[in-house]
Amino acid sequence: MRKFFYGFIGILFYFSGWSQSVTWKAGDQQKNIGDAISILEDKSNQYTIEDIVSDSLFRQFKPSDKVILNFGFTQSSYWLYFEMDAPDDQLLLELAHTHLEKVDFYAIDEKGSMQKLRSGYSLPLHKKFKKHHFQLFPVFKGKYKYFINIGQPVQPLPVRIHNVDSYEIKSYRQRLVFGFYLGLIFFVILSNMFFYISLKNKLFLFYSGIVLIYLSYAWMVMDGFIVYFFDHIDLKFWYKNIPTIGVPLQMMYALVFLEMSKYSPKVNRYTWWLIYYFIAYAIIKFWIPETLLFALNTLHALISFFGMCYLGYHSHKKGNRLGIYFALAYLIYFILVLIEATYVQIGTPGYVAELSFVAWATIIEAFILSFLLSKRFEWEKEDSDLQRNIAQKQLLEQTLENERIVREQNNILEQRVTARTEELNNSIKNLQLTQTQLIQAEKMASLGELTAGIAHEIQNPLNFVNNFSEVSVELIDELYTELEKGDINEGKIIADDLKSNLEKITHHGKRAGDIVKGMLHHSRKSTGQKELTDINTLCDEYLRLAYHGLRAKDKSFNAAMITDFDPDIPKLEVVSQDLGRVILNIITNAFYAVNERSKNGESGYEPSVIVGTKKYENTIEIIIKDNGPGIPGHIKDKIFQPFFTTKPTGQGTGLGLSLAYDVVNSHEGKLR
After folding, report:
1. How many CB atoms sit inside 10 A of residue 121's CB?
2. Phi, psi of 366 (to 5 degrees)
3. What's this model's pTM, rounded to 2 decimal places?
4. How far is CA 527 from CA 523, 570, 571, 574, 578, in A?
């Protein structure tokens, strides 16, 4: 079956010459590709990707000629297809549609490899490729064929390619604007609730419910931002039900607000019959096929807009001066809905500040009707002025009292802050003193390890001096004996041996002197003065000193010392005392690590430490390796932090690598 599928993939790329292709130019930020897509209607709703790429179905794809795809009212599912040779992997495919329950996305490269992703409102945001109310998918670098199964769309579908960076900015701006929009709508709702509580007039409460319906319409039906708040929500259910709830409610509100029973009882009566019809429709809609239901919802929305505009105009003619403003509010709403319909058909004009025209219509209508409500009940405001003045006076008195209490509290707080600041300064001084002591302890520990190593290192040349001195004494006795015998030749041979011994004593004596000189040099406080130093010799000396330092503490310890020095490294100007401490500290840590691992009793484990140097064009590298347990990944970022150590208490201050890091940086180098 897999070979069969890949065979059809090959056929697919063979016929790529007549397929729809999307091009992306350098500098593009966004591109509508609706008219570069081919479409296949699946009336059975059962086609799989294997079926789609088969020769018989693939040839049935038809090119789209619309910037925004519009499938009308249908129960069929649809497959979209396009190909693209993307210049990079910083592109996104956007299906600007929230009300897609399930979207399957397939990307097939020239070798027939396929990648599949799923999106749609039935999928929680955290499981999507991008956390967005629209459906987003990656556009892969190189030449790919893309197939998308969008299920049964209920709205026109814009399809776009975006640059990732610009889309992130757009998405952020979109959510920011929606946040402001949400805040404005809730402000309208809360302000009307406040008026209801203050004035005890149910019209404000009724209008708060109407605005909430409008918010739900924009939130769940048009823009779909509701998915950010609820993971599992059936948007299609609300798409079918919210309009049927909103239409009768807003017409009832119009009758009450405009007092139609007072100004035109006849029109009021006919309108109530229309409202009864809408209520009946809201009940029986559950038995109406979806395709017919969506068409009827659209028709009823148009009827309600015309109806409310007519009610406002008619009440104005009968003497209601607020009627003309009411009609104007819904006329603006109707015009913006028409603009929305134009946009979803031809892609223009574009949204303003990333909000749909229906959302803007909701804002404008909400503020206009809020203004009309305030004008309608202006006299009630006058009645409440006296009570408000009394309340303001009481509030002022309470505010003055609060200010007095705040001043007293501020004085108390200032005293506490002063005391606390003094305590903090003392703590900082103590901490600085402790840090200085710890740094000195680390240096003394380093000096102690160095001294132990030097003591063992100096023992070797001293042993040679003592041994050859004893042998030389014996040779002098033999020389006297041979001279008494008169054997001049044998005496010369003994004298030559004696001379050789004295030369060896001189050599090893100088070696011991060099070691002592190095110890004194290391123990002196660094002046920071740089001097020409043989790096290979420095590394070799401190390797042996570190080894003997650990041997002085633990006689059972043994480890292989391996050197790999680059002979081409010239002498460099460095602060040899400081750099020597760095090398000693790191090598000591390496010996400590291999010693700890050797205590585990691993079969065949031979501890070893490798020290090497390498010359590059403008730099040299000192490499220190060990075959210890290694550094765990989760602490690698912490090893250069002061006082951080993995050694047991009493075996390390945690300052060695921190000081070493500073020394290397002062030499314009890197420690890693």
Report:
1. 26
2. -65, -45
3. 0.48
4. 12, 23, 20, 12, 10
